[in-house]
Automatic annotation (TrEMBL):
<dbReference type="InterPro" id="IPR039556">
    <property type="entry name" value="ICL/PEPM"/>
</dbReference>
<protein>
    <submittedName>
        <fullName>2,3-dimethylmalate lyase</fullName>
        <ecNumber>4.1.3.32</ecNumber>
    </submittedName>
</protein>
<dbReference type="InterPro" id="IPR040442">
    <property type="entry name" value="Pyrv_kinase-like_dom_sf"/>
</dbReference>
<dbReference type="InterPro" id="IPR015813">
    <property type="entry name" value="Pyrv/PenolPyrv_kinase-like_dom"/>
</dbReference>
<keyword id="KW-0456">Lyase</keyword>
<dbReference type="Pfam" id="PF13714">
    <property type="entry name" value="PEP_mutase"/>
</dbReference>
<dbReference type="GO" id="GO:0047529">
    <property type="term" value="F:2,3-dimethylmalate lyase activity"/>
</dbReference>
């Protein structure tokens, strides 16, 4: 029995043929926005964390502990299944074991590992290198050993199209399935024919990564579904739309020295507070204060009820 309901829901969703559209998020607020928009899952994007949290390019500069910290904040903020980008696993197969343990502990529904050689880089950058197939297979076997919850999904990504061509990339994909990968992600196919070849090559769900301006054609979701893809990442949409909007707002603020012209482009004050759960926190604050007053006034019956409720909450979290 799975201890992670989100992982179980994601597995069940992948049993359906309809394309699962997954936006990339880089922080808890974007995670909540995805949830409020009705998305079914989120992708905690490594490139997005590098860009937004550190102002760095996607060149493998973010560490495992930094990824775990950021992913943990996002997972705690939402009830959606989170697919977490774990880059190369941050080392060899033993490092992969620790990475999987840490991400599974925080509640990741799926963990993505890739076969690039360190320092890794964005899948749509030039200059990538990949490790030997056997080294990536070792990492996937290690990930399977480290996984404690059978529902946790292991996504194996290969960047070999750019370095070895499509045929070799598909051979790697098949080897990664044999090593225990639940989902296959062949990064940066260059045309529709290469896209079509990927789902046909393996008998597990496949991912396509839509990067506007990158190597992969921008096909509509309906067409990707017909080709056989189960998941489409839109890893950059939140980052790039938000960055463009904020840049425009800052330029207008600098020029006009007022935000009056920006009011209709802002999240309202009320919507902002609703998004971050202000009413729930306020109600919790009041309930705790009321419990404390009752206990301080010597109401033994209320004290017993509070202790029982706290114990029940602790059992639920356990």
């Amino acid at each position: 029995m799975s201890a992670n309901p989100a992982a179980r829901r994601l597995r069940e969703r992948l049993d359906r043929p309809e394309l699962l559209v997954v936006p990339g998020v880089t922080g808890a607020l974007h995670g909540r926005l995805a949830e409020h928009a009705g998305m079914e899952a989120i992708f905690v994007t490594g490139a997005g964390i590098a860009n937004t949290e550190f102002g760095w390019p996607d060149l493998g500069l973010v560490t495992m502990s930094e990824t775990v910290e950021m992913a943990g904040r996002i997972v705690r903020a939402v009830d959606l299944p989170a697919i977490v980008d774990a880059d190369t696993g941050y080392g060899n197969h033993l490092n992969v074991m620790r990475t999987v343990e840490e991400l599974e502990r925080l509640g990741a529904a799926a963990i993505m590992l890739e076969d690039q050689r360190a320092p890794k880089r964005c899948g749509h950058f030039a200059g990538k290198e990949v490790v030997e197939t056997r080294e990536m297979v070792e990492k996937l076997v290690a990930a399977g050993r480290a996984r404690q919850d059978p529902a946790t999904i292991i996504v194996a990504r290969t960047d070999a199209i750019a370095t070895e061509g499509l045929e070799r990339a598909l051979e790697r994909a098949a080897a990664y399935v044999r090593a225990g990968a639940d989902v296959i992600f062949v990064e940066a196919p260059r045309d529709e024919a290469e896209l079509a070849a990927i789902p046909a090559a393996v008998d597990v769900p496949t991912v396509v990564n839509i990067v506007e301006g990158g190597a992969t054609p921008l096909l509509p979701g309906a067409q990707l579904e017909v080709l056989g893809f189960r998941i489409a990442f839109f890893a950059n949409v939140a980052l790039r739309v938000a960055a463009a909007s904020v840049l425009d707002a800052f330029r207008e603020l600098r020029a006009e020295r007022t935000t009056n012209g920006l009011l209709d482009r802002m999240l309202s004050w009320q919507d902002r507070q609703a998004l971050v759960g202000l009413d729930e926190w306020t109600a919790l604050e009041a309930a705790i204060a009321e419990d404390a007053r009752a206990i301080a006034d010597g109401r033994a019956d209320r004290a017993a009820q509070v202790k029982a409720a706290i114990a029940e909450d602790a059992r639920g979290r356990g």
